[in-house]
Structures are given as C-alpha cells and as structure tokens.
Amino acid sequence: MYYFFSIIQNADAKTWQVYLNPMPKQWESHFGNIYYEATAYWEKRVPGTHFTEINQREKADFVVQWASQFYGTRLGYYISSANNDLGRPYIAITLGYMDDESVKWQDVKFNLVDAEYAKLITIHELGHAIGFDHSDDPNDIMYPTIYNYDDWLQKKSQTKNLFSQLENNLQKSPQNIITQFNAKSIPLKEEVNSKVSEAKGYVYSRQDLLYSKNYQNPEAKKELDKAWVKLGEAKDYLAKSEWTQKEGEKYLSVSDHKEAYYKYLYSREMVNKVWDPILEINSAIHSADMLELEYNSQIEKQIADSATKQKDKTCLWIFCW
Questions:
Q1: Last residue of some domain: 169, 198, 225?
Q2: Average pLDDT, the chain
Q3: Which residues lie closer than 8 Å to 264 by C-beta, 6 or more apart?
Q4: Which positions fall inside the Peptidase M10 metallopeptidase domain (predicted)?
Q5: Beta-ladder partners of 18
Q6: Which residue, among 235, 236, 250, has the nearest Cα to 28 in the 3D structure?
Q7: CB-count exposure of residue 233 (10 Å: 0-12, 13-18, 19+)
Q8: Are 141 and 253 within one domain?
Q9: Structural domain tally of the chain?
C-alpha cells in the first residue's frame, strides 16, 4: 500500500505534453486532483520532468482518459501505440465499475474505486507513459501487482486499523496533535493565498507579454517558442496550487485543520515552483529581443549599403564627380 520514493537521477527528463480528458463532474468530489498529484510525484522523482496540458490531442505525447469499465481485470492500463481511436498513445484509469454487466444501462449503479488506489494507478500508468517499465521491487510504485485491487483494499483496511489505534493514542496524549494543526493551518492558508495571488498576476502578465511579441528573426522566434513552453509549465504549477488551495478551504470550512494543513502545504510547494519557469520566460524574451535588435540592425545596414551602391551607380552614369 505504501511505496518507497527515491530520486531517479539518470532518467531522461523532458516536458511531456498531455491531452487530459475531463473527469466526469459527478466523480470530481470523490477523486479530487489525482492527476495533478500523480504528475507531481514524477516531477519530484525525476528532476527536470514536467507535464503540461494542451488542447490539441494530435500534438500530445499521450492522452489521459477516465474509464468506467475494466480492461480485463485491471483498473488501469497504458497503450503505447497511436493506432487506436484516439490516434495517440494513452492511459486509461477506471474510476467506477459495475458488479453486474447484464443490468440495463439506465439501471446501472457504479461502484467507485477507492480514491487513493486510483491515484496510485494513475501514478503507475503515468510511469509507463514516460518510459518506465515494471519494477522487480515490490515496494516500488512500478511493481506490477499494484493491479490486484482486492489485495490492496485488504492491506489498506489493516493499515487503517493500525493508524486508528495510533490516532486514539495521540488523542489521549498530553500534546494533542489536532491543536497543533489548528495553530499551523491558518497562517499557512494566509501565506498560500498571498503567494498564489502574486504568482497568478505575474503568470498572466507574462502571457500578455508573449502575446505582444512578434519577431522576424527565426532565432528570436525559437526563443519565443521556448517562452511559451515555459509559460505552460508555470500555468500547470499554478493550476495545481489553486486546486489544492481550494481543497484546503473546503477542509477548513468543516474544521478539518489537519487535512487543510496538508493541502495548503502542497499548494505552497506548487506555487513556489511557478517562479523557475517565469525566470526562464524572462530570459528567453530578453534573448529574443537582443536577437531581433541585432537582426533589425543588419537589415538596416543592408538597406543603407544598397542605397549607397545605388547612388554610386547613378553618379557613374551622370558624372557626379
């Protein structure tokens, strides 16, 4: 149920362009932001890896879609070939399923998959999509028996009972952990709200700047393209931060300070990551401006030289000297 986490230093890192199919609205409250949590896992584990959402499916490295049926006995799978109805490699994660497939569609009642398990499956299949094979280590998220849902549920039940006992012991202890979370969640919320507001303003100011740029120099255009990619990364981090910020607000509204604290903690982590791509945007635009300035100077010089040659040629014919 719990998997070790180790940084993979030698893996190929890149920005993956993902076409994300929307999750059914009626299931969002149950599953939350499992896609963003799954991408955050790999961004941490493989330094330099990023995921950015795009609107054109045909340009995506792979597609993520949410399923409502099994594929054989599995709750998730990855198809590496683009020879399918989607036209791209894709991962599919089953969020709900039927006990009796003979029931008429209008009478179907779905069993929702455990949200934590759905997140683990999403992490696992994303791992395949970015190039990782199955692991031989049973403690690794890429170990293939993660597919055994019934075994996983049983282990979760056992672990949950253990944690329930620990929680009871903590409640009886002199230092009540709940009080600690009450004291920490509100200041963290205020910090996150401030950081998200600042980052959001800056991200969209960079977007407006990029829209205003129009270069003639091919090399400057390449720098502008780089800046757009980095803007996508910044917006992804911002979206993850805003999502978990709202989740934190939901938990605070029902006085669940512990869950709120962890949501805000993750939100702060994501919003802090916004600034690296922002700096790269600024650098790319500066380079593009310098390249364009040099390019324009060369064009102006060519025009001036051409005009001088034309004048000399005219003088030759009419004996200017």
A1: 169
A2: 79
A3: 185, 188, 189, 191, 192, 244, 245, 248
A4: 15-147
A5: 53, 62
A6: 250
A7: buried
A8: no
A9: 2
Structural domain that includes position 30: 14-169
Q: What's the CATH code of the domain at 59?
A: 3.40.390
Encode pLDDT of 120-165 as tens digits. Answer: 888 889 999 998 888 887 778 887 765 566 776 776 665 555 445 5
Structure tokens at 102: 């003979």
